[in-house]
Write a structure and sequence with these properties.
Elements: H1 26-39, E1 49-50, H2 61-65, E2 75-76, E3 96-109, E4 112-124, E5 131-132
Parallel strand pairs: 1-2
Antiparallel strand pairs: 3-4, 4-5
């Protein structure tokens, strides 16, 4: 029988037995991972990596930063402010920027709102003349 108790490989990715997948719901991501990360600076999720989205290009994310996943990857990232005294979010990278698109999706646990899901599209170039890229 194979021993699958080893959770880390040299490249930081998790190793699970064949057939096992990490596919949490939006509610599970918020209540079991994100809320714990926000409340405890020392919290580290073995299945979710950390990345500064302003310093990494999207095509570098899966192979270099994801701890596990095949078609979907999960990351913790700090929200960067565009200006020190502003609430505006900085979503620029070296070669492009992330732009919010569509309507934010409400995430509920039972009947309580626990978070919002925002869809971002990466644009190559500078705003407003950037062109969207198909990532993945």
């Amino acid at each position: 029988m194979e021993n699958f108790s080893r959770l880390g490989k040299e490249d930081g990715q998790m190793e699970l037995p064949p057939g096992f997948r990490f596919h949490p719901s939006d509610e599970e991501l918020i209540t079991h991972y994100l809320s714990k990360k926000v409340l405890d600076n020392g919290f580290s999720a073995r299945a979710i990596g950390e990345v500064d989205m302003n310093k990494v290009e999207p095509w570098d994310l899966p192979c270099k930063k994801a701890k596990m996943g095949e078609k979907v990857w999960y990351f913790f990232c700090v929200r960067d402010k565009k200006y020190p005294t502003s609430l505006r979010t900085n979503r620029a990278t070296v070669v492009g920027y992330w732009k919010a698109t569509g309507k934010d999706k409400e995430i509920f646990r039972a009947k309580s709102l626990v978070g919002m899901k925002k869809t971002l599209v990466f644009y190559n170039g500078r705003n407003p003349i950037g062109s969207s890229m198909n990532i993945g």
